[in-house]
Design a protein that fits this description.
Crp/Fnr family transcriptional regulator, four-stranded antiparallel sheet, WH_DNA-bd_sf, alpha+beta, DNA-binding, 44% helix, transcription regulation, 22% strand, single chain, globular
Length: 227
Amino acid sequence: MATLDVTRRVLEGAQWLAPDAIKLAPLLADHGKLVRRPAGAWVHAEGDEDTGLLVVVDGAIDLFCHGLGERHVRVGLVGPGAAVGQSARFGGGPRLVTAAAATPCTTLVVSDRALARIAEQAPEIWRAVATLLYGQLRYALRFGADMLTLPPTQRVAARLSEIAEVTAGLDALPLSQQALGEMTGLTRKTVNAVLRRLQADQVLLCDYRRIEIRDVGRLRDIARLPT
């Protein structure tokens, strides 16, 4: 299990904490709770009343939303340094997504009470939470726009490049073709064809339930090609 020192180092590199990461990282590590979970374990469920932040320290977390009926639709994957959640201070309600361990992982759980205690020493924490909320909103809007406007190759490239940004601490994405299909609204057959082309162009390397991004810059360029 990750130590507090490892947790602090991961937090110091978290973009959503900039420019106050050096000050906030030790406070979050000290006031949060480290939890280790095996692959496949649920972290929290959509609709849970608990508020606060969930920070990935090592491993990766899958994010799901409820679809039609009881179906869970995969909407994201986050890795070390990334965080999800919200605070009651900003009108946050029940959890918006279900989080599950994509791999064995360690998470730092920071409750609303813990955030309030941190704010007594460092009010900058609220700026960091607001930055995180803005990032989550931006991702949701971009996700919707991509699903509505992009053809398959660009849609896959856009999704992979965005996931790569929040999983930079991983050697490869723990992502199957079926999972990527869920996140892009495409069939597994279509995703497989797109991935084969991207692999032939040396943009990425596919293995069983694993995608290694070789050139994230080219992925971004492909996602922005005119339709």
